[in-house]
Design a protein that fits this description.
The complex is a heterodimer. By secondary structure, chain A is of the alpha/beta class. Chain A has five helices and five strands. Chain B is an alpha+beta fold. The chains are: A alpha/beta, B alpha+beta. At the A-B interface, helix 2, helix 3 and helix 4 of A face helix 1, helix 2, helix 3 and helix 4 of B.
Chain lengths: ~120, ~150
C-alpha cells in the first residue's frame, strides 16, 4: 500500500492538492512534483487540503517553503486547510501560521481567494 | 520495566515509515500519551533523515542502528551511523521568523528535533561512528523542574 498520495483537482478558480498519508523525506518529492506541475501550468492559486494527511516532517514542510515565494511573486498563494491537530502542531512549532493562511475548511480558503481577487 | 530494543535498517528514506512504527510501538508501551509518543517519533524521523542526507549523502547501502532504552521515567533513543560526522547539537538554530520570511528551509528539522524531546546529545568516534541520543521523560514538566 502506498504510504502517501497526492491528488490534484481544479475548483472554482483555484487548484486543490489533496494530501493523504505520510509526508516525509521519502514522499516529499511527490508533493514537489505536484507543485512544480501547477507552476508550469501557471496555476498560482493553490489550496492544499490536508484532511487525510496523517503525518508531516520537516522535509514536507520544506516543500511549502520551496514554492511559496514563486507562487506569491505571481500574485498567487498557497493556503492550507483541514489539518488535524497533530499535523497543525508541527506547522505551529515552526511558526508557519505567521507565513501561511491556514483554514479549517477548504471552502473558507476558496472564499478568501475570491475576496483577494476582487481587491 | 520494558527492555532494550534494537533495530538496524538500510539508510533509505523508504525505511522511515518502518522506523516510525518501531519507535511508536515502544513509546506507547513505555506509557507515553499518543501526543507525546508522536513527538518522539517525529524527532527520531528527523534524526534519521539527517543521517541519510548528511552522514551518508543518500548512499542506500549503509546502515542505521536505532537503540531504544527505556529506564524508569526516561525514554532514550540512540541513532547510530558510520557516516560522515554530523553534529546536530552544534548546528546554529535558525531564527525562525527570519528563516520563514526569507523562505529558507535549512535547519528546520534540527529545530523540530530539539523542540520535541528533552535532550539531544551527540557522540562521535572518528572513523567509527556517530551517535545521536534523544531523551524524553515520561513527565517532561516534572523532570524539567528537577533539573
Amino acid at each position: 500500500m502506498a504510504d502517501f498520495k497526492v491528488h490534484q483537482r481544479d475548483g472554482e478558480g483555484v487548484s486543490v492538492i489533496d494530501l493523504k498519508g505520510y509526508l516525509d523525506a521519502h514522499t516529499a518529492p511527490d508533493l514537489e512534483n505536484a507543485f512544480q506541475k501547477l507552476l508550469n501550468d501557471r496555476k498560482f492559486n493553490i489550496i492544499v487540503n490536508c484532511k487525510e494527511l496523517s503525518y508531516i516532517s520537516s522535509a514536507g514542510l520544506g516543500v511549502f517553503m520551496a514554492f511559496i515565494e514563486d507562487v506569491r511573486k505571481n500574485k498567487g498563494d498557497i493556503k492550507l486547510t483541514n489539518m488535524s491537530p497533530k499535523v497543525y502542531n508541527v506547522f505551529d512549532l515552526l511558526g508557519f501560521p505567521i507565513l501561511y493562511e491556514i483554514y479549517k475548511d477548504e471552502q473558507e480558503a476558496v472564499i478568501r481567494f475570491k475576496e483577494q481577487k476582487r481587491t | 520495566m520494558p527492555k532494550k530494543l534494537t533495530k538496524t535498517i538500510e539508510s533509505r528514506t523508504d525505511n522511515l515509515l518502518q522506523i516510525r512504527e518501531f519507535v511508536l510501538d515502544a513509546a506507547r508501551t513505555f506509557g507515553f500519551s499518543e501526543e507525546e509518543a508522536s513527538k518522539i517519533v517525529l524527532a527520531v524521523d528527523e534524526a534519521c533523515t539527517n543521517v541519510i542526507k548528511h552522514a551518508y549523502h543518500y548512499a542506500p547501502d549503509k546502515t542505521i542502528q536505532i537503540v531504544i532504552e527505556p529506564n524508569k521515567d526516561k525514554f532514550q533513543v540512540t541513532i547510530i551511523d558510520e557516516g560522515k560526522a554530523f553534529n546536530p547539537t552544534t548546528v546554529r538554530l535558525p531564527n525562525l521568523k527570519q528563516q520563514l520570511t526569507h523562505y529558507r528551509r535549512g535547519g528546520l528539522g534540527i529545530y523540530l528535533m530539539k523542540s520535541l524531546v528533552d535532550k539531544v546529545e551527540y557522540k562521535y568516534a572518528p572513523g567509527q561512528k556517530n551517535e545521536v541520543r534523544l531523551t524524553k521523560y515520561l513527565s517532561s514538566s516534572a523532570s524539567r523542574a528537577r533539573h
